[in-house]
Structures are given as C-alpha cells and as structure tokens.
C-alpha cells in the first residue's frame, strides 16, 4: 500500500468537487422602479450650515406631494448579526455621546467609514467608537460591547468638503479590538461591480425624514441600480459634482427601505453563505449621501473596491480573502511522510483567526470507496 500522501492530489480534487462553490448567493428580490420625485440636498451629517439646510428641508417637506413612510421597512438587527458594525461618536458635556455616523471594523485596529464623518456641524471631530452594541440606549449589550477612543481619522487625500467625491476614510483606534461573540471583522468586496443580489445596510440612523436617530441598530434591504438609472434619480450639482456620478460611486434603493440621516459611513454589504450555513459579510459600499429618505428614495454609496489599494496602504495589511480552499491540514509524520488531518473548508481570516477545516476521519468509508474504485488502492488512516 502507498502512503496516504501519494493520493493527496486525488483526495483534494474529490473534496473540492464535493464542496462546490465557496459562497452561495440567495435569489434576488425584484423591486419595482417606482415614481420620480423632486430631490433635495445632502441628508447626512456634514459640516454644511445646519440652519440653512433645515430651512430648505422644511420647504421641501411643505411642498411634497406624497405621504412619508416613517419606518421604511427597517428591521431590528440583533447581537452577533452584524459583528463588524461600529458606531462613531462625539463625546459631549456631562459624558453624553452623540453617535452620528457608522462604520465597519475591517481589521482589529481600523474602522472603514465616510470622509464626511470627520466632523459634525460644529466642526468637531469624533473621538470614540463603540462596537458590539445593538441598543445604545440600554445596557443589554454592555457585557460584550467595547468603547475605544479614536487615535486618528484618516480621510482620503483627495476628499474635499465642497465635493461629493472620494468620500471614504479609515479610523485608527487607540488599541486593538478584542474579538468576542458580538464583535468580528468584515471582509471587503474586491470585485469591480456590485453584486446583483440583495444588499443589506445597517445603522443607527433616523427611522424616517425629520425623525430622531434610532438607538437600536436597524437593517434595510436594497438593490443596486444601473448607473444610467442612478444618474436620473440623483441631482448633480455642478459645484458639488462637476463630473456627475463617477465609477467609484453607485446607487441602491428599494420602494420601502433606505438609509437615512445618521447612517453615514455605515456599511452596505452583501451576505455570503458557506455550505455549513455560516454567514460572511462583505462590505460593498460606504453610505455617502442621497435623496431625502422617503418612499422610493435613492442612496449613493462609495464603491469600496475602487479604493482597495489606498485602504490596504493605510491599514498596513492585506485585506484579501483568498484562502487555499481544499488545501491540506497536515503534520509531519516521519521523514518525508505527512499525516493529513483534513481540508480547509472555511475562511481563516475571521474572528480569532482560527482555521476551520473538515476532518477526514468521519468521511473515511466514503473516501476509501472512491479511492479504491479509481485506483484500486487503500488509504492508511490513523485515529491518533
């Protein structure tokens, strides 16, 4: 009989065939395009004049000819559902904190967000980030939540407050995040185009136009729009957007859901599933701006894949999720012989950076039958 290592190529090939695709996409949900409506200016926190903005917003609300939907179909998100979600806050007097922006934990030290979240309407920078909390108004998640001061807020070097381009930033924390059941890093979507299936945005933003920010984490389901449709729905102010909508931006919407004020910088993500039912979040976009969050509104997102080189340079780390799927997990036995314990079956960059593999022992009879049928050889198994 030959050593098991001599049949390694055959075993791994068969295992790869059995595993199939690494991530499975859920069927997309079709949304109707809805009706057009008059757009108005930026709805997310920036450094523009707040009183003038409120005056114009009130004027728009007075003249609007449609009923407003308050909740936007948003659903409550629960602990552990979006472990990468970060709330970016401004500490006020009497130790109160205003969480005006969101973000995504992409390494244990850095949070991805929007560049316009670098200051509030008083031109004050944020100073703290909270992770692992789905209800900012209660103590329910305090045991697993972490509050970490901000060390640096790094805006894209080409971002300008007077423009709506390059709206992306990374926040460096004063210390590393400690992974737990409620906190984990997300992956970044590396493909040029946004996925065609349903996208999910999460945040602590307002539940409707003119309403207060929500202390409870909400999730909404959106569909990416074609660029030509997006351009028709979003006003392109010549001063703010002289190039119109760029390739590093994209739109998403639905008839009854949308991101709103306070969701700036938060993630728009696609969810992927492995064959064991485990869910992985991939950040496709960062909430940037959009039309007023009413029925059929449209949001504009910074395309993360357009900035991968810059992000990796700032965090000093590769964000690739390429893994040697189907590769052997083995130890040296004697001389040039190896003992194969299993095959890599899940991402290894996740929480705790643990490698998850499929053990070969439970599949011993199946493997032996396949190898014997193909090569008329038997495998050597060890239970130790």
From TrEMBL:
Gene Ontology CC annotation, any one: extracellular region
Q: Which Pfam families match?
A: Trypsin (PF00089)
**What are the Peptidase S1 domain coordinates in residue numbering?**
71-316
Q: Which domain of life is it from?
A: Eukaryota
Q: Which Gene3D superfamilies match?
A: Trypsin-like serine proteases
Q: Please state what the protein is called.
A: Peptidase S1 domain-containing protein
Q: Which InterPro entries match?
A: CLIP_Serine_Protease, Peptidase_S1_PA, Peptidase_S1_PA_chymotrypsin, Peptidase_S1A, Trypsin_dom, TRYPSIN_HIS, TRYPSIN_SER
């Amino acid at each position: 009989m030959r050593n098991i290592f001599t049949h390694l190529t055959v075993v791994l090939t068969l295992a790869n065939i059995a595993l199939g695709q690494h991530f499975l996409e859920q069927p997309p949900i079709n949304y109707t395009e809805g009706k057009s409506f008059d757009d108005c200016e930026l709805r997310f926190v920036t450094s523009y004049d707040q009183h003038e903005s409120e005056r114009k917003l009130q004027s728009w609300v007075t003249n609007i000819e449609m009923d407003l939907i308050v909740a936007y179909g948003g659903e409550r998100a629960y602990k552990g559902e979006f472990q990468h979600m970060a709330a970016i806050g401004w500490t006020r007097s009497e130790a109160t904190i205003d969480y005006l922006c969101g973000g995504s934990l992409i390494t244990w030290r850095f949070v991805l967000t929007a560049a316009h979240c670098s200051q509030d309407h008083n031109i004050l920078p944020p100073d703290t980030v909270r992770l692992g909390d789905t209800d900012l108004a209660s103590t329910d998640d305090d045991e697993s939540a972490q509050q970490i001061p901000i060390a640096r807020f790094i805006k894209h070097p080409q971002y300008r407050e007077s423009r709506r381009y390059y709206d992306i930033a990374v926040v460096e924390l004063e210390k590393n995040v400690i992974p737990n059941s409620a906190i984990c890093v997300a992956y970044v979507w590396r493909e040029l185009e946004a996925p065609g299936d349903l996208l999910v945005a999460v945040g602590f933003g307002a539940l409707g136009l003119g309403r207060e920010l929500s202390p409870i984490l909400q999730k909404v389901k959106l569909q990416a729009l074609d660029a030509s449709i997006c351009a028709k729905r979003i006003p392109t102010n010549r001063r703010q957007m002289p190039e119109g909508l760029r390739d590093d931006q994209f739109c998403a919407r639905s008839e009854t859901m949308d991101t709103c004020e306070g969701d700036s910088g938060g993630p728009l993500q696609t969810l992927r599933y492995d064959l064991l039912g485990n869910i992985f979040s991939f950040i496709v976009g960062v909430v940037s701006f959009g039309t007023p969050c009413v029925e059929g509104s449209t949001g504009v997102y910074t395309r993360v894949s357009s900035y991968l080189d810059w992000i990796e340079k700032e965090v000093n780390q590769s964000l690739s999720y390429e893994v040697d799927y189907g590769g052997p997990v083995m130890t040296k036995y004697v001389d040039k012989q190896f003992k194969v314990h299993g095959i890599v079956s899940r991402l290894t960059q996740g929480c705790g950076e643990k490698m998850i593999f499929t053990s070969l022992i439970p599949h011993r009879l199946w493997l032996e039958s396949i190898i014997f049928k193909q090569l008329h050889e038997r495998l050597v198994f060890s239970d130790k």
